[in-house]
Amino acid sequence: MRTPRPRPNKLHDELDALLDGRPVELTDELAPLAEAADALRAELATFQLDPEVANRHLEEVLQRSGTVVQMPVRRQPNGWDLRRRAVAVALAAALVLVPATMASAAALPGQAMYPFKRAIEQVRIASVQWSPSREAGERTRVANTRLDEVRTLTRLKMFNQLPGAIAALERAVVAAKVAVAEAASQGEPVPAVAATLDRLKVEGGQAVMRVMVEVQAVGGPLPISQETYRAIQAAAAAGWTSGPTATTTARATTPIVRASS
Amino acid sequence: MLGFGGEREAVSKVGLTAADLAAARRREPAAVTRVYTAYAPALFRFFMAAVSDRHLAEDLTGTAFVSAIESLPRFRGPVEALGGWLFQIARHDLYDHRRKQSRSRIEPLEENLNEATLADGGVDPEEVAIERVEGSRVVEALRELSPDQREVLLLRMAGGLTAPEVAEILGKTTGAVKALQHRGLASLARVLGLRSPQETQEPPYPSPDSGRLTSQEEEER
Description:
The structure holds 2 protein chains of 2 kinds. Chain A is an all-alpha fold. Chain A has a domain of 155 residues. Chain A contains 9 helices and no strands. In chain A, helix 1 packs parallel to helix 2. Chain A starts with 9 loop residues before the first helix and ends in a 23-residue tail after the last helix. The C terminus of chain A is likely disordered. By secondary structure, chain B is mainly α. Helix content of chain B is 65%, strand content 0%. Chain B is built from 11 helices and no strands. The two termini of chain B are 28 Å apart. The N terminus of chain B is likely disordered. Classes of the chains: A mainly alpha, B mainly alpha. At the A-B interface, helix 1, helix 2 and helix 3 of A face helix 2, helix 3, helix 7, helix 8 and helix 10 of B.
């Protein structure tokens, strides 16, 4: 709320002029005010700064003036700073990656978030490559994810995505087999992971067979292209579940499914 | 403003030029000394009237001036506005001092007098007391005024600032400052026994009814 402006006042203006030393006619109203002002002025005039004190003040000011003013300098980061930066970067990355990872976790081949899901898997694999056993575990986990994708695509009857998904499953299983073998050769046997991988291969074969069943269960003309059908058929026929994991040399294994939709 | 006939360069009321200000910003000793010489006496009068203690007023003057010189590079106004800016700092320092003082205990008069005696080189405390009372008749009368009236009169008369400059420092209109100085001087005249018979018998401050503003107080807002 605005406060009302004071009314213009002749006496106020005249007094102001008087205090400024401008010529004003001294009325009866102004006289006592002028006298009070003179008394105050006279009193104030008695307050004289001691010259010694003035010199002391000046010395202090000039002494400070002579002091070199330090400009802010960018410090070299020390260990603590580096740790803080690392934490800040990790936090920023987490803020971006965690929601994206969660959003992409359920992505299926052909969906917008799927490439992101695969990229995150590659990052996770890269982060454990210093340990053969951990890499074997991570690659087996990825293979399991591919298997889940094949099952989900089959359930959703997204047949056109299946040849690629089966090929990806095959590649993931091969990579996991290589990692398990590598861990064993490095003296870091991972029997539990190897057992999981063996089970995964069996379930993978069953999943591919299930694909064939689902495709054939659809009546009338094939719901997929001939090429896709042949690719799925070839994958199912190959079975790709031979041999125990630990003794399998992955590089000798050839992907069964080559065709894509 | 004291202009020197025909000079184009801006000159403050106390004779400082823009070149002085620029040099003081660079902390050139000669310019800093000129600024100090121009304003320190007024600053000291302002503090002295406000705190009634020479040593304290000297310290406050020094502190205000040091902080002003250190902050001078941030002062962007013309040389004519330097006085107002300095008194803004002084006022801030005074409030700061009062805030600190309000937290500390109130020392008995006896102790103060003894301290003053020691500081003055062994002068009789009674003499000090008498000197203080006699010498501060007008300053004591100032205490009868409202804080706003007192501050306006000190900035106007001790600081030598104009009504618009005081208005800017206090965040009031020039009209309000003029009204405050009028009421302040009227009260001062009454307390000092200089009051003309035509004036009404209004108490200086505060109003008898604290819940209701007088027309005088309304005007001062």
